[in-house]
What does this fold into?
Amino acid sequence: MKKLLLALTVAFVAFTANSSQAQISINFNVGSQPLWGPVGYDRADYYYLPDIQTYYSVPKRQYVYLNDGRWLFSTNLPSRYSGYNLYNGYKVVMNSPRPYLYFNDHKVKYAKYKGLKAKQKSIKYSNDSKYYIVKGHPKHAKKSYSSNNQVRTIKTSSVKNGNVKAHSNSKKSSDGHGKGKGKKH
It folds into this structure.
């Protein structure tokens, strides 16, 4: 009886440890999303673009579209969509593998979003600081120096006539050293 109780306890602990670990490992890919992606999503595997019936793979940074009955992957939109404005078109976020395999369903389900212009705010125009990590964002911050005592960032905050003004910000370390006074290790 004791062995059975011990075995059940070990199994229960192992099960709860695995499920709590699974809950902790949530995937965030804000920094991988394109500037024209919609705000409000910490994770996006694909976008479906109803206007042009095309998908965009965020991790692969490729468009997925039908051509003669076959799905093609490309870093560029096909020439037939050269005038399409990615910032204005509606994007449906999809977090499932190979959503293009369900294209016939998506084409019907998301037809109501066709032609909706500027109804979604794009990452590029967001003032939410979580999007500042996206390369090309007007407030994109780059880490330029890091040690245990000090972190400096270069923040591009304004652009005039193609010239970028950079501002340096230093964070005070926990040992009380301020700007530029931390020890190098």
In short: Strands lie at 46-49, 54-57, 62-67, 70-74, 92-94, 141-146, 151-160, 163-171. Helices lie at 2-24, 103-109.
